[in-house]
Write a structure and sequence with these properties.
The structure holds two protein chains of two kinds. Chain A is mainly alpha-helical. Chain A has twelve helices and four strands; from the N terminus they run H-H-E-E-H-H-H-E-E-H-H-H-H-H-H-H. Chain A has one domain. Chain A is about 70% helix and about 5% strand. Helix content of chain B is about 40%, strand content about 25%. The chains are: A mainly alpha, B alpha/beta. At the A-B interface, helix 6, helix 7, helix 8 and helix 9 of A face helix 2, helix 3, helix 4 and helix 5 of B.
Chain lengths: ~325, ~260
């Protein structure tokens, strides 16, 4: 298992690096869209897949990251903080949002948690629409600065692709390290049996809060990248559908598995594009495929296999 | 001998039901105390009070000379009280080794940054934890089963793994809730020997809930009997066995239908 990973990982990475010139502008743009969802998936996977907390309001943190960057790097307030400075800021903002949501729901489980997080997502969405002086309401924020390194501005689909790619590598690395640590084990134990985990010495409140905070941080990065890439943000970009889509791609890919999240995003976001060939039946075919998938592979395409113990002597 | 655990007038009520009423217990270090009583006597409730699962309504619990009343489960565990469950509660989709590592959680320190950076101290700590977990796996007789998912282990092995997970905490007090439940006589005899081995080799005290009288009477240094949340007897296995109150609690008072729970004998 460990060895196969060492072989296939560099090949996959190399393939993905060489992909854009082969597929051209349009598909590179699509790959960028997929990439942002991969990042969101990796983040939500920490909350849902590892810690087992059903969060239906994940879009809220994505929105916080996006608006955080948009407000600090657009003519709206006339502030222009560079992308690279603001990126950690967006992570901190989203993490703060995660903690803010985490505190009131610490004692909730399952369905109740899902309902409250759903509400939180909607509150943020409504705030974006109605908090005119800050967010400019449904008219959104326009002319958001693109990231730049010196004179090199990230403004073409190709450049964006590589920036998003770097973001994914970073996110996947962090999530994987957490998963294979004392913290990941605590999350999974909590997911399996919360009461038994508490009695085995795991501080449930702390690890729930940690899961929400860290999960939200990934959405903060995704949001900042989304805002800078689109150059504008509108409340419609942050509807409930985003939360549902991210949750779906985790389930399709395989809960708790990072390669699963990536494949899930490719299928869920990429497939509708590929299916453009079948015109008006596109969404019908897509929906049918999802149903078939849940019947034939209910645990997802790449279910998380508890890894072999690498450190064992 | 030093006193490890002491409950002073411990009481626990669920609404109108008094599950534990003024329980006084004393447990010295390196002693096996058997806890018996009919179903519903409050044995598991007592475990839940000791491990912070239930808040207690009255009295106090003294562990290693400090009160642990009102402390959360994860705190009592890190102080050195570990337990198993009556109905096995392993983390099913984790491997056997990972289950033990979870038990070791409170003896490790790595935080978020340590986990991400995998710096030297974290790596060292992980290696150490894996080594200890492997040792425990061998100790409970599950050598080579480390990578098996807990839910795929046979029943008897799951019971053993649960004990290993509790031992990973490095407890000074181990609470075993019916460890031989559902085992055949041979497995029961093996596990009984194993419990004695734990006590002598790891130098800890064991509080044992058990329905199999041969097990309890065989390995307990002392036995405490609960009935309807009240301690009705205490003493050596021999004394308890002859105690008329205990016989009554288990068999009912012959010929008396006025008793609080006369069983037609």
């Amino acid at each position: 298992m460990v060895n196969t990973k060492k072989i296939y990982l560099p090949i996959v990475v190399l393939f993905l690096v060489l992909l854009p010139p082969m597929v051209g502008n349009y598909w590179t743009q699509v790959l960028g869209n997929i990439g942002i969802y991969v990042m969101l998936g990796i983040g939500l996977n920490v909350v849902v897949g590892f810690a087992g907390l059903l969060d239906l309001g994940y879009v809220a943190f994505y929105a916080i990251g996006a608006y955080g960057y948009a407000l600090m790097a657009s003519p709206h307030f006339g502030i222009h903080i560079p992308f690279w400075v603001m990126l950690p800021g967006c992570v901190a903002l989203a993490a703060g949002g995660g903690a803010l949501l985490g505190i009131p729901v610490l004692r909730m489980r399952g369905d109740y948690l899902a309902i409250v997080t759903l509400g939180f997502g909607e509150i943020i969405h409504i705030l974006l629409n109605n908090l005119d002086p800050l967010t400019n309401g449904p008219r959104g924020l326009l002319r958001i600065d693109a990231p730049a390194i010196g004179n090199f501005v990230v403004n073409s689909p190709f450049r964006w692709y590589y920036l998003i790619f770097a973001g994914i590598i970073f996110s996947a690395f962090v999530a994987d390290r957490l998963n294979n640590s004392r913290i990941g084990r605590a999350w999974i134990a909590m997911r399996e049996d919360q009461d038994a985990a508490a009695v085995m010495g795991i501080n449930i409140l702390k690890y729930k809060l940690l899961a929400f905070t860290i999960g939200a941080s990934f959405a903060g990065i995704g949001g900042a990248i989304f805002a800078a890439r689109q150059g504008s943000v509108f409340p419609e970009n942050f509807s409930l559908m985003v939360s549902i889509n991210v949750l779906c791609l985790i389930i399709i890919g395989g809960m708790g598995s990072i390669p699963g999240v990536i494949l899930g995003a490719v299928i869920l976001i990429g497939l509708p594009e590929i299916l453009r060939g079948v015109h008006q039946y596109r969404m019908l075919v897509f929906g049918g495929l999802l149903v078939a998938m849940m019947i034939f592979r209910p645990t997802g395409f790449i279910p998380s296999a508890r890894r072999k113990m690498e450190l064992r002597e | 001998m030093t006193i490890l655990l002491q409950t002073k007038g411990l009481s626990k009520r669920f609404g109108g039901l008094t599950a534990l009423n003024n329980i006084n217990l004393e447990l010295e270090s390196c002693v096996i105390l058997g806890l018996i009583g009919p179903n519903g006597a409050g044995k598991t409730t007592l475990f839940n009070c000791l491990t912070g699962v239930y808040p207690i309504d009255g009295g106090d619990i003294i562990f290693e000379n400090r009160s642990i009343r009102g402390l959360k489960s994860h705190v009592t565990t890190s102080l050195g009280i570990a337990r198993t469950f009556q109905n096995i509660r392993l983390f099913g989709s984790m491997t056997a080794l990972e289950n033990i590592l979870v038990g070791r959680h409170c003896r490790m320190k790595a935080g978020v940054w340590g986990a991400i950076a995998m710096n030297r101290s974290t790596l060292k700590e992980e290696k150490e934890a894996f080594g200890k977990a492997d040792e425990l796996l061998n100790f409970v007789g599950l050598k080579g089963q480390g990578d098996t998912l807990a839910k795929n282990l046979p029943y008897g092995d799951q019971r053993r793994l649960e004990i290993a997970r509790a031992l990973a905490v490095k407890p000074s007090l181990l609470l075993l809730d019916e460890p031989t439940a559902g085992m055949n006589p041979r497995e029961t005899a093996e596990l009984t020997r194993f419990i004695e081995q734990i006590r002598t080799e790891l130098d800890l005290s064991i509080l044992l809930i058990e329905h199999d009288m041969r097990v309890v009477m065989g390995i307990s240094d002392r036995v405490t009997v609960l009935d309807y949340g009240v301690k009705i007897a205490e003493g050596s296995p021999e004394e308890v066995r002859k105690n008329p109150k205990v016989i009554e609690a288990y068999l009912g008072r012959l010929g008396t239908m006025m008793g609080k729970r006369a069983v037609t004998a």
